[in-house]
Fold this protein.
Amino acid sequence: MIKKNNNIKVVAIGAHPDDIEFGCAMRILYHVENGDTIIGIICSDGEKGGERETRLKEAENAAKTMGIKKLYNLHFPDTNFPDMIIVKDAIEKIINKEKPSVVYTHFKEDIHQDHSVVAQASAIACRKVPNILTYKSPSTILASFHPHLFHVGSEEDFQKKENILKVHQSQIKKYAGFDLEKLRMESKFYASSINHPGFYAEPFCANHIVLNLINNDKSNGSASA
C-alpha cells in the first residue's frame, strides 16, 4: 500500500499498552524502514492488567524498539472508558495536530469494550485521514473479521515482532491470553491463505482507502498511501 521512499506520517492507535504491537508491529517496522514518521496513541494505561507505572514503562520501551517517534498517553481508565465522544475528541485533537496520511486502529467488532470504543472513536476522529486500516486483536470477533489487506513478513520480521511483544513481561507472566505461539500460528495461517506459505501476515480491514491521492498533496497536508 505504501510507496517505497515516499515518506509519510502514520498514527497507530491502541486502547492499551501492547495493542499496537499485537495488531501491526510488523507493519510499523516496515514504515520505519521506509523512513516514515510514526506516532503512537495509547488510550489507557492498562492498569487493570498490571501495575500502572510498569505498563507505561513497557509501552515506552516497546515504542522505542519499534521506532515510534512520539507516544501520546490519554490515560482513560482501563475497562471504564468515558463516553465515546470524549474519546473521539481526545484522539481528534492529536490527529488534527499530527495530520497523518495513514491510521491503524482497532477493528470495530471486538469483545473488549475498550477496543470497541476506540474503534468507533477512531473512525470519527480520523474521518479526514486518507487511509484508515483496522487490525485484529486477540479479542476480535472472528466471525466478523474478514481481512482483505495483508502485510507479509519473513521469519526475521516476525521474530522482531515477538521480541517487541516480549517487552511486555508483566502481561506474559500474568495472562494465558498473551499467547505468542498462537499469534505465530495465526500469522502463518493468514500468510498461507493468500498463497505465501512459510511467511507471516498481519491482516487488516479497511475503514477507507484513497487509491488515487496525489503524492505529497500540500492542500490537505497529507501524502500518498
